[in-house]
């Protein structure tokens, strides 16, 4: 069941709507990171507008340049870690389109669902990103305590989080939030295992950028399989 859903989703990755969601997510992420860096440069320029004078040294006029170049290095370093979670969060705003594309191709007899409102989608995305980041920060403590089990902790934790998020995303479109949670509760073992499969590519650079799309497509298939059962 899980592998069937996964391979069907994988086969549909070249779909134009899948690629559109991916490029929008990456483009908006880059724009956001550039905007943050521009704001940081403005703050540095404002703080260093007046030269600083130190006793025995005189005026220091190069502090702004130092902070500017230092902030560039810092931003490039942080972007390595921020790119994937931020891109995943932004891409999640458009995952309704991925589920629509899956259902149009594989479940053409279904009636269309109303689009998720931007405010509701943004709220769910921010909540999930916060939980994902918070849980992984906590996981670092477990890695330190149980270094021999770090590999299993990473996949078990992220598999649980990804499985729950993407399954409920797919299910809520059809049966609402309450029934989606009930269906998840009855099948959480299967959903957790599918989430672990989604977590595997997280460790591969660039490939991890397609996880939100692949996850949404896989769990759309899985939802329909489980709801029939």
Low-confidence stretches: none
The averaged pLDDT comes out at 77
Record field, number of beta strands: 2
Compute the number of helices.
8
Q: What is the alpha-carbon Rg in Å?
A: 22 Å
Q: Order of helices and strands, N to C? A: HHEEHHHHHH
Share of residues in strands: under 5%
Q: Which word captures the global form?
A: globular
Side by side, the strands of the main sheet go 1-2
Helix content: over 70%
Alpha-carbon distance between the termini?
A: 11 Å
Structural class determined from secondary elements: mainly alpha
**Main β sheet profile:** 2 strands, antiparallel
What are the key terms here?
globular; 2 strands; 229 residues; two-stranded antiparallel sheet; mainly alpha; 8 helices
Summarize the structure.
This protein is mostly helical. Helix content is 78%, strand content 3%.
Description:
With 229 residues, the protein is mainly α. 78% of the residues lie in helices and 3% in strands. It is built from eight helices and two strands. A two-stranded antiparallel sheet has the order 1-2. It is globular, with a radius of gyration of 22 Å. The mean pLDDT is 77.
